[in-house]
Design brief:
This protein is an alpha+beta fold. The chain is built from 3 helices and 2 strands. The longest helix is centred in the middle third of the chain and has 25 residues.
């Protein structure tokens, strides 16, 4: 696993108070948040690819990156 995935995993791990009067803590992994973070990262990579391709004069390929972003959003039901 690369470092970015490990960082997203850390972001999706929450410390929860438990025990009498909340004196203890435990860690809880939020799978939904982890999935949302990965999807956000994929959409960000589409944006980066689109910008880079435009910068290097590849407008058709840039349109492809933009299309992939739309497909990812539709597939996972992402609303803006």
């Amino acid at each position: 696993m690369n470092e970015r995935i490990k960082e997203l995993e850390r972001q999706a791990t929450e410390t929860v108070k438990c025990g009498l009067n909340g004196t203890s803590t435990t860690e809880s992994f939020n799978r939904k948040k982890f999935a949302e973070l990965i999807i956000e990262e994929c959409l960000l990579m589409c944006d980066c690819a689109e910008a880079s391709l435009l910068e290097h004069s590849y407008p058709r390929e840039s349109d492809g990156a933009a299309s992939v972003k739309i497909f990812i959003k539709e597939h996972f039901g992402v609303k803006e």
